[in-house]
Amino acid sequence: MGITERLIEDVGLRRGVSRLTTDKIEKIVKAVLKGETGARLKAYAETCVRCGLCAEACHYAVSHPGDPSYTPAGKVHQTMGVLLKTGGRVDPDFIYGMAQLAYTECNLCRRCVHFCPIGIDTGYIMSTVRRICHKLGVTPQYIQDTAHSHSATFNQMWVKDDEWMDSLMWQEDEAREEFPGLRIPLDKEGADIYYSVIAPEPKFRTQLIYQAAAIMQMAGVDWTMPASPGWDNSDMCMFTGDFEMMGRLKRKHFESAQKLKVKRIVMGECGHAFRSVYDMGNRWVGWKMYPVPVIHAVEFYWELIQQGKIKLAKKFPGPVTIQDPCNIVRGRGLHEKLREVTQFLVDGEIIEMHPNREHNYCCCAGGGVINCGPPFKNVRVEGNTVKAEQLKATGVKTVITPCHNCHGGLHDIIHHHKLGMDLKFLSDIIYECMEKPEV
Question: What is the reported pTM?
């Protein structure tokens, strides 16, 4: 069964292909392949020996046994393989299927790279396919709407400037009832820490801003948050293939921090946003190194614990298990620090999923897949039954998950399979268990 047998109607994809001609497709494909790729893509295309080892790496393939079209090599064969073979001369209907596969059946998690004996990076290839789709104007409606929000507001949730400020002031006001004297410092020059979040926090999960402020207060951190655009560190444009806008977003984020002369950026518990800042956006902008040092929340909490700045009134009851987010574990190597922070916080055993750490299965929400919206929800839930089996095998009730996308993906899997498990950010547990002032 190939992608043509499982097409799903999406208004964005349909509208995009309706504007295409074979000549236009060929022109765009050739322009991208010639101007934005090179020896790397050619080497991958010419060295894949179709050994099949990548099949056991992909959660989609493992969750659809016996269907090679879900394997990483199968996905490349159905997309980039055809473009290279035909020189990009394909019809609009082909582009529809190619786009659906690239955006909704690959999380760009790069687990397959660990299994390929010659190191072919399927994530890079599928990102290039998405880049071509973007240049052709063929992207799923929901994720394209998010990219439009980035273009218009520099955040992914259409949060207006006054709404951002109101959210911070609201959380500060709420927190001061429990933490007298607490402030969320705005635009403070020279602070040690510039704390950045993704737009779903002020929109849907304001309690995470509350918790971060409480942790900063009790740890005695010199910190600030920006009052103007640049505060959202997320980046759906990276996933749609709109690399020009991705570069604008990262430049805005770093310039916001530079303007305040801060020492470091600490990013909240989000994997894809961290990847966009430390790996993708900065390179597209052309910087050799980041203009401001960047660390993820896992590293930051680990540092505070090592310095004795997080003091616990109690420990969180175990046992628990850990979801290893692809972009901070496979992409950044934070698996041991994540476990050290968890061990500090939890009274009880950490029951590992198997496999774990850099070999853990993706949540199936990352790579922009969850942002492709309701039309494709069943694709990712059914495409990751292996994760449900992983979770169930631990026998625990709590999953520590330091990533927004992992929360979204695992929530849907847990609900669909009726696993009865709770998801926790690290900040949820730190806030719950740390010492608090007597009011």
Answer: 0.95
